Amino acid sequence: MSEIVILSGSPAIPSRTDISLKHIQSLVEKEGYTTAYYSITDFSADDLFQGKYNSEDISKLAEKISKARGIIIGSPVYKASYTGVLKALIDLLPESAFKGKPVLPIMIGGSHRHLLAIDYALKPLISILKGEPLQGIYFVDKEIDKTAPESPIQDLNLVDRVQGQVQEFVEAIQLRNE
């Protein structure tokens, strides 16, 4: 079927953000989609911090995003927002990089106090890039089991929420391609 681009904004390796995104990636692939997974750690610090928008790696990412049917973007919560290094990467993409694409935002924070980081930080960023943000999923760190990457989510209500958001994402992609 169609390709989905997944962007991880976590500088940690391994991270709960990556574990969560890879779990969601597997769910999307079960729906018949192919995926391309990118982490900010895949890009050179020189490209990110010196704003090399024309670097080969950034150009390849921009091309992949332009051909994608949908995007999943995730970040840990740092100071009530997404990571600065994710913003550095996003700043190098074309202004309308996400134009007309459904975007599923994912954030992982230390507590429920940062729940609105998706609405007040990540969704506006997605909108600036002309993407169409879905509701999204906020995880608390302790809800992600780093020792069980195949099934990192143990809470059944959260499992249902994740599956529901994946279904909404898939439906949004299908609606735009009919």
Automatic annotation (TrEMBL):
User: Would I find Lipid biosynthesis among this entry's keywords?
Assistant: no
According to the entry, every stretch annotated as the NADPH-dependent FMN reductase-like domain falls at 3-140
Q: Per its UniProt record, what Gene3D superfamilies does this chain match?
A: 3.40.50.360
* Keywords recorded for this protein, A-Z: Flavoprotein, FMN, Oxidoreductase
Query: Which BP terms does GO give this entry?
Result: alkanesulfonate catabolic process
Pfam families noted in UniProt: FMN_red
- Signal peptide from the UniProt entry: none
Tell me the superkingdom of the source.
Bacteria
Kindly give the InterPro entries that the UniProt entry links to this protein.
Flavoprotein-like_sf, FMN_Rdtase-like_dom, NAD(P)H-dep_FMN_reductase, NADPH-dep_FMN_reduc_SsuE
Q: GO MF terms on file?
A: FMN reductase [NAD(P)H] activity
> What's the protein here called?
NADPH-dependent FMN reductase-like domain-containing protein
Q: Tell me the organism.
A: Peribacillus simplex
